[in-house]
């Protein structure tokens, strides 16, 4: 792994749980990520799934809280969890938790002061896939993407815009229509400017209607999630998939909230979804 | 749950993951703990297992990192994880990570300045079992204890001293002979004083030779654990069990370190061990 510096390494379910860093050409910053390498990857190339995290998260939250390693080991999946934004002293930021560092929203910023470093779309769709393929035994064509909340938005949108790259997609509690809700409107205004035409290219509901996705979309959403009504509005994705004839399994899970306890409960289903499609 | 204040509640694997607090008569402080209540406990009393954490931990580490809820839900086990010491401004402390707040060592302190609040032995063997039985549907007589590192020491010693209370015991990376290693010698000198006779009552290897435990002891230890040689010295427990004829399964796990990635890998085995003995 010449490009990556290894910050930590632990054995987990017979595989390797790594924390890595590297200089990113997309963001112009040092980026951190975690990578789980299952035992099967020591023998032959295996499928790989990216995990995109939500607001305030780093590469660590999913890695220590989701309990994904057990099933990733069993199914033989590499799982890659990047940080959610560029970071550092020279990088633009905002005091709010939902803008700036920790809140990259998986777009390439085109508005000041975010333009120089906030290039998370290019990072997760171009630079990171190439680096991961170079450093780990990823089976060609077998890449999927999943995420949570802001990262659920990220997973759905980067997959629909790049179906030749990402063959499978799923999301927990995604922001399905960022153009229509406060989190998305605030972030897109800052990163993409006032012209809402540019927003549509990063809005999952718009993309479902415009492009769709070749394989079934899996979404889990807790009905006790405090963000459901104002920010997530899952029903918009249900409607869009119905209208567009998009194959989707969108499940409302009774009693579950927005936390990693929810994610941990259903992560096995998501990993199985990706493994089934990625073959 | 009149005695407990509920600080948070999340649905997890069909059960309830709670964070609670209460005024402790043992420590004279407000104590926090986490409790996982499996779906089966809504229908009938179920067995309960205490988890005792290691140095620097609170009630949160195990709860968010071990991934225990999945198997606890499947087996129908209540899992209780208390904090590792009293805390607060009026509570004695030390700048070191291995003494004072976050490092209670599951003993009742008899030396200044620790005596007034550092009563973790009484807390986990008397007060907490009584409160948990009052607030949750624990099947009578079906209580076990497990822990990690300092908490592995805690689990082994409180179980052997109270076999009528704890019917099953297991540990990850336990400090098996605190009287013989720096962590234990420092803590016991501070909490129990210079007289090493008092230390023996809280030393797992001494207790194995003196009392033993009625059911099999399960221990997992990673051979890549950086604390193995100096602080944990698992071979001392192997020898003590052999000499005393104590039934024990002590496994060296190749490649594993001291982290929660190790715990998460083998927590299912430990929960099954407790469920089998607790019936």
From TrEMBL, chains A, B:
Family classification: Belongs to the esterase D family.
Keyword S-adenosyl-L-methionine in record: no
UniProt source species: Breoghania corrubedonensis
Family matches, as PANTHER family: S-FORMYLGLUTATHIONE HYDROLASE
A Pfam family recorded for this sequence: Esterase
Gene3D superfamilies, alphabetized: alpha/beta hydrolase
Catalytic activity entry: S-formylglutathione + H2O = formate + glutathione + H(+)
Claim: Hydrolase is one of the keywords in the record: yes
GO terms (BP aspect): formaldehyde catabolic process
Catalytic residues, chain numbering: 149 (charge relay system), 225 (charge relay system), 258 (charge relay system)
Protein name: S-formylglutathione hydrolase
Role of this protein: Serine hydrolase involved in the detoxification of formaldehyde.
MF GO annotations: carboxylic ester hydrolase activity; S-formylglutathione hydrolase activity
Keywords: Hydrolase, Serine esterase
EC numbers on record: 3.1.2.12
GO cellular component, one term: cytosol
């Amino acid at each position: 792994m010449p490009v990556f510096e290894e910050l930590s390494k632990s054995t987990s379910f017979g595989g390797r749980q790594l924390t890595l860093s590297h200089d990113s050409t997309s963001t112009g910053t040092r980026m951190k990520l975690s990578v789980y390498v299952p035992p099967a990857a020591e023998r032959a190339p295996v499928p790989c799934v990216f995990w995109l995290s939500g607001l305030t998260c780093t590469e660590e939250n999913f890695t220590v809280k989701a309990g994904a390693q057990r099933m990733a080991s069993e199914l033989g999946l590499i799982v890659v969890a990047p940080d959610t934004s560029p970071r550092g002293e020279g990088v633009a930021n905002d005091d709010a938790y939902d803008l700036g560092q920790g809140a990259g929203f998986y777009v390439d910023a085109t508005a000041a002061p975010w333009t120089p470093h906030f290039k998370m779309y290019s990072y997760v769709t171009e630079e990171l896939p190439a680096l991961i393929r170079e450093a780990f035994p990823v089976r060609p064509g077998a890449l999927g993407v999943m995420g949570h909340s802001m990262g659920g938005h990220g997973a759905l949108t980067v997959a629909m815009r790049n179906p030749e790259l990402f063959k499978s997609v799923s999301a927990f509690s995604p922001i399905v229509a960022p153009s229509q809700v406060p989190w998305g409107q605030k972030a897109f205004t800052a990163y993409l400017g006032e012209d809402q035409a540019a927003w549509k290219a990063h809005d999952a509901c718009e993309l479902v209607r415009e492009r769709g996705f070749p394989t079934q979309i899996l979404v889990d959403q807790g009905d006790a999630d405090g963000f459901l009504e104002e920010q997530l509005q899952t029903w918009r994705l249900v409607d869009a998939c119905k209208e567009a004839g998009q194959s989707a399994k969108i499940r409302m899970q009774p009693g579950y909230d927005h936390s990693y306890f929810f994610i941990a409960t259903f992560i096995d289903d998501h990993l199985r979804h990706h493994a089934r499609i990625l073959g």
